[in-house]
């Protein structure tokens, strides 16, 4: 499987953004599609047909009459280097010369998240980059850095009766009083093919589908697990963090708010797709996560054990066994 390209975000001013659109890239745009991301309207503008098709499969559409809250220009320009540029005032992002749809969708969600962080109200929404499931109205989030088993554990939980997927990669939250409401971000999931090597039940999910150059595809998990597999929202009760530490013999333990805050800050909010990372933004995110942790039960699971053993520990939490 090819390596996913790396990028760093280049912040630009409105004048440069206008110049790039008007003088350089306007004529390159072949397709425009709007997505409804938790009530925000994010518009894709691209000259890559595959991006347009995967976007339509991935996200719920937004009425064309709604003015975009943010835009992402995903364009092939002929240059060899992948670049990401962002203009924060108009929430305009450029993803240039990248073949990886995963960045298109992640940056769209990041633009939406950046907009929501700036929109303060009594029911402010925030985005979280990681997974969430529902069990009989009880929500559990799995928050961790990449590579420690978050996706595998989330999909393992889905095999249990009455467990439903809210999000496998990114979800939205609204803090209301002492509660935390969680909303789905995607209509269908952008899933990696090798999930079937960890959980054999998902082999059928990938039969007959076309994978992109990075071994992934947008697919409907309802096709294998049933029409009720996915759910739009839940009330969050549990937050599970993951780590992979062979020096720690304990697989599962509870965490206090201060310890969870240290974890999330040390791991850059477990979100490599943040567009603006200045001191002010860091303060906003710290305040949000503190409120989130104060309203939930927090756990740490060490994923050095087998997938099956770790999943049993996570089931004990999410299924309240």
TrEMBL record:
SUPFAM superfamilies: PEP carboxykinase-like. It comes from the Archaea. InterPro entries: P-loop_NTPase. This is HPr kinase/phosphorylase C-terminal domain-containing protein. It comes from candidate division MSBL1 archaeon SCGC-AAA382F02.
């Amino acid at each position: 499987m090819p390596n996913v390209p790396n990028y760093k975000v280049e912040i630009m001013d409105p004048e440069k953004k206008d110049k790039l659109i008007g003088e350089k890239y306007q004529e390159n745009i072949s397709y425009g599609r709007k997505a409804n991301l938790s009530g925000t309207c994010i518009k894709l503008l691209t000259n890559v047909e595959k991006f347009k098709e995967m976007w339509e499969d991935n996200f719920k559409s937004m009425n064309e009459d709604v003015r975009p809250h943010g835009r992402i220009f995903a364009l092939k320009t002929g240059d060899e280097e992948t670049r990401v540029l962002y203009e924060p005032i108009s929430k305009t992002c450029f993803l240039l010369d990248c073949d990886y749809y995963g960045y298109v969708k992640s940056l769209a969600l990041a633009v939406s998240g950046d907009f929501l962080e700036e929109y303060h109200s009594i029911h402010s929404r925030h985005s979280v980059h990681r997974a969430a499931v529902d069990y009989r109205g009880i929500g559990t989030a799995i928050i961790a850095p990449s590579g420690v088993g978050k996706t595998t554990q989330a999909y393992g939980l889905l095999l249990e009766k009455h467990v439903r997927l809210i999000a496998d990669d990114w979800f939205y939250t609204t803090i209301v009083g002492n509660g935390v409401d969680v909303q789905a971000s995607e209509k269908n999931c952008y899933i990696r093919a090798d999930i079937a090597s960890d959980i054999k039940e998902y082999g059928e999910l990938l039969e007959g589908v076309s994978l992109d150059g990075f071994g992934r595809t947008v697919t409907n998990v309802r096709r294998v697990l049933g029409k009720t597999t996915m759910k739009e929202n839940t009330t969050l009760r549990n937050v599970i963090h993951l780590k992979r530490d062979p020096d720690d013999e304990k697989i599962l333990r509870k965490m206090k708010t201060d310890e969870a805050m240290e974890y999330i800050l040390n791991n850059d909010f477990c979100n490599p797709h943040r567009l603006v990372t200045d001191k002010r933004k860091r303060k906003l995110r710290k305040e949000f996560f503190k409120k989130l942790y104060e309203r939930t039960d927090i756990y740490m699971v060490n994923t050095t054990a087998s997938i099956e053993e770790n999943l049993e520990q996570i089931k004990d939490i999410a299924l309240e066994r």
